[in-house]
Amino acid sequence: METNQKETMHAMPRIGDPAPEFKAVTTQGPINFPGDFKGDWVILFSHPADFTPVCTSEFMTFAVMEEKFAAVNCKLVGLSIDGIYSHIAWLRTIKEKIEYRGMKDVEVKFPLIEDITMEVANKYGMVQPGESETKAVRAVFFIDPKGVIRTIIYYPLSLGRNFDELYRVVVALQAADAFGVAMPADWRPGDDVIVPTAGSCGVAKERMESKEDMKCYDWFFCTKPLPEEKVWSKLKKK
C-alpha cells in the first residue's frame, strides 16, 4: 500500500492529458492554473532551488527571451519548492548583481510559483526520488490554449535546458496544428514538413492542393514545402 501511495505522489501527467489544476501564490500575485491562461500557450517549468547557479543561468535566459515567446502567444510560468520571500530576494539579486554572457540588469517579470508544500510539484511529477526527494527536477510542460499538455521534457538537476529547443517546440507544435502536418527531425520554420500518411503517396497527392509541390520518398514518407513567411503569418501575434 505504501508503494502505491508513493507512486501516486510522484505520478506524472501524460501528453494529451488536461493540465492538472491548482491555485498558487506567485511573485506576480495569485494564479489559478491553467484557467488564467486559457487561449494562450504556456510553458510551465520547474527548477530545483533559488540561489543556485544553473537555475540562475536559466532564469536569466527565460527572462531575456520572454518577449520572443510572447510574440508566438506563449507565456512562461516558473516553479520551485521555495517560499515567496526567497523567490523575491533571488530575483532581486539576479537583477542587481548578476552579469552573465552579456545579460545584465535582467528583470524576471513572469510569475514564479511558491510551492513549499510541494503540492504542485507532486501533481506534475516534478519530484523524482531517484534524483532528489526534496527538489523539483528541471521539468518543462508545454500546455496549449485548451489547457492540454502537448509536450513534456525533463532534465536532471545538473543539466541546464536548451532554450533554442524550447522555443522550437512551441513554434513547431503551433505550426503542426495550424497546417495539419507533422514536423521532421530538426524542423525549423522554412523547412519542408511531413504530409500525414494517407495510405499511399498517390492518395496523399490527391488530397493536396499543390500536387506538384509534394515529394515522396516512399509510400509512407511524403513532404511538402511550407514557406517561412507562411508559418510566421499564422503564429506571430498581430
CATH second-level architecture of the largest domain: 3-Layer(aba) Sandwich
Instruction: Provide the helix percentage.
Output: 25-40%
Q: Would you report the number of β strands? A: 10
CATH superfamily of the largest domain: Glutaredoxin
Strand order of the largest sheet: 5-4-3-6-7
Number of domains: 2
Q: Unreliable segments (pLDDT under 50, ≥5 consecutive)?
A: 1-8
Radius of gyration, in angstroms, nearest whole number: 20 Å
Q: Describe the global form.
A: globular
Brief overview, please?
The chain contains 7 helices and 10 strands. With 238 residues, the chain is α+β, with helices and mostly antiparallel strands.
Question: How does this structure look, described?
Answer:
This protein has 238 residues and is α+β, with helices and mostly antiparallel strands. The protein has two domains: 2-162, Glutaredoxin; 180-235, Antioxidant, Horf6, Chain A, domain 2. The chain is 32% helix and 19% strand. The chain is built from seven helices and ten strands. The chain has helices at 2-9, 53-70, 84-97, 119-123, 163-179, 201-207, 228-235; strands at 22-24, 31-33, 41-46, 74-80, 112-114, 138-143, 149-155, 193-195, 215-218, 221-224. It has a five-stranded mixed beta sheet, covered by helices on one side. It has a three-stranded antiparallel beta sheet with strand order 8-10-9, with no helix packed on it. It has a two-stranded antiparallel sheet with strand order 1-2. Helix 2 (53-70) links the parallel strand 3 and strand 4 (74-80). The longest helix is centred in the N-terminal third of the chain and has 18 residues, at 53-70. The chain is globular, with a radius of gyration of 20 Å. Mean pLDDT is 88; it is low at 1-8.
